[in-house]
Design a protein that fits this description.
The termini are far apart. The chain has one domain. Strands 1-2 form a two-stranded antiparallel ribbon. The chain is mainly alpha-helical. A hairpin with a 2-residue loop joins strand 1 and strand 2.
Length: 201
Amino acid sequence: MRNLKFLILTFIWVYFLTPFNLKSSYGKDIDIGVSINDGRLSHFYFSVGDYYRVPVEKIIIIKKRYPFILEEEIPIIFLIHEYRGIEPDIIIQMRKKGYSWYDIMIYFGLYPDTLFRKYVVVYGPPYGKAWGYYKKHKREKIVIYDDRDIIELANIKFLTEYYHENPKVIIEYKKKYPKYIEINEELFKKHKLHKKQIIIE
């Protein structure tokens, strides 16, 4: 029953968003020319694209099309896309309507406490900050994650798995580098991926 409801709701979203041409050709955007001047940002997009197996051009165009999306939110978008096959445009439109990242993940049947299970321990005390907050739900307590929690956990998961590092290593980097783009840059150089990067002009 839950799966049927999920499919129906997803169909409704696709039905109403399609008239707005949200799935317009990415190729048309590429034709107008896209470039990245910031080397760190270029490396971050390259790493995200390589990990999630999506063209870097697509990531750049999404960011250009939706400037309100933060760079560090991009891994969340493609995480949902990877696990549920939902087009990034649909995910971003939900975000634009005011849905939290937690609500969006739950809507598409992704549960942060399960998906990020082995990273929650590292992100929380004693290595990181306190995560989420408890909310009474019927007779039990459930953990509600705010947007910052989801951003942190999605990036920790991405960097840990892509670079094959211990999650604690990422947390240690976070103490020195506040942005995940900076952490990615350090790991990018450490693993010498700059030698393999595809240059985008």
